[in-house]
Write a structure and sequence with these properties.
Arc Repressor Mutant, subunit A, 4-stranded mixed beta sheet, extended
Length: 477
Amino acid sequence: MKPTLQLRLGQSLTLTPQLRQAIRLLQLSSVELETEISQALESNPLLERPDEAMPGPEPPSHDDAAQTPADERGDEAPGEDYELDVPDWDLDDYGRGSGAAPGSEGDDERETILAGGEEDLQDHLLWQLNLTPMSTRDRAIAVTLIESIGEDGYLGETLDALRDGLHPEIDAELDEIETVLHRIQHFDPPGVGARSLSECLDIQLSPSEPSAVVELARHVVAQHLESLAKLGPERLAVQLGVASELMHEAVTLVRSLDPRPGSGYARATPEYIAPDAYVVRRRGTWQVQLGPGCRQRLGINRHYESLIGVACKSDSTYLRGQLQEARWLIKSLETRADTVLRVAECIVRHQTGFLDFGPEAMRPLVLREVAEELDLHESTISRVTTRKYLHTPRGTFEFKHFFSSSLATADGGSASSTAIQAMIRRLIEQENPRKPLSDAALVQALEREGVTVARRTVAKYREGMNISSSNERQRLK
C-alpha cells in the first residue's frame, strides 16, 4: 500500500485541565469541597486563606423576624419575614463518649454512655446480661440472641437459624435456646426479644396481678388481635360472650402496652448538613444567599509570589506552576459558587408556591427547564443539584427535592408528583384508623380534588413514602 497524505477538517471537544477541575469541583458536596481545599492548601504554598480574623459572610437575617431556628418554624404563616439563625458551633465544645464496652466500668460508665446518648438497645441488654448469673455456654447463646434483636425490640431470626449461627463448639438444642430467650425476655424494656406482636404484648402482661381484666387481655392478645382491629371492642365482646365493660377495660390495658419496646433505645447516628444556600423572605419577596461554606475565600500568598522573579530557575518554574494552579482553583471556586447561586435562585422562582403554602403547592420542574433558562447544559444542572442543600423556612432539602415529574389533572393542567405524594400523606393522616383508605379510595379522593392518577401510581407513591397498606394501618380507637 502506497503511503499518502490526507487533509481532513473536523471539530472535537477537548477538556482542558481548568475545565476538568471546574467540573470536578462542581459535583462535590460541601464536606468534600472543604477536604479538597484543605489538601490544596497543604500542597500549594502559593495558596492561603485570608486572615482568620476577617469576618465571614453574615447569615441572612431580618430585624423583625423571630429568633427561632428554621426547622422549628415549619408552621410559620406565609408571607412573614423570618430570620435565619445559624449558630457558630465549635466541635471542641461537645463531649465525646469513651466507646468502652457496656458494663466494663459499672454504673458510672453506663451513666456516662447514657449522658452521651450513645447507648443503643444492644448495649442496654448486654449491660443487663453482665449482671445476670449465667453459665458460659448460656451466655454465649444469650449474646447471639441479643445480636439478633432489631431496633424495634423483636427477635429478627428464627431459633433454627440462630442455632446454625452458633459457634461450632456449642451444639445447643432448640429448647435450650428458647430457655435462654425467655430469660432475655425478662430484661428491660418489657417485651424485648419477642417473636411476634402477640408474644410481645403477652410478655408485658405477664407480671400483672391476676384478675379477670388481665386474663381477658392476655386471651385477646394471644388469639384475637386481628378480630379486635376489625370488629372493635363492642362486637368482639359479643362474639366472645363477655361483658362490654370488661372488654373495654381489657382493651384499655392492651392500649397501654408498647408494641415496639426497643424504639426508645434505637439511636441512629445523626447526620449534620451544612446548607449550600439559604432562602429568606424580605419585603415580600424570597431571596437566596449562599452559605458561608459555599463561597470559599482563598488568596495568593504574596511572599511566595514575590520570590518568582528572584529565585533560581528550578524554583522559579515550580513557583510559577503552583501560582497558575492556585489561580485556576480560585477561579473554579468562584464559578462553582456563582453557578450554585444561580440554580438556587431559579429553583426559588419556580417553587414559590412550595415556600408559601407547602408541599402540595409544589409545581412540576425538570432539569431541562432550568438548563434552558440559565443557558447551561443539563448535565451541569444535574451536578449542581446533587448533594447540594437549600435551607428554607419549611426545612432543609436537597436541590433535587424541588424537581419532579408532572401528572395530568382533571382540568387539563398538571400536578407535581411531589405535591401528589403530599396529598396522599394528608389524606392518610386524616383517615379513620378503624376504616383506613384503600388505594382505590385514595384514587377517588384525589379525583375529587381534581387530580387523576392510576391506582398503581398511588400504590407506588405510598410505598415510596414507607406507608403501609390499608390492612396494616388499621388501628383501634
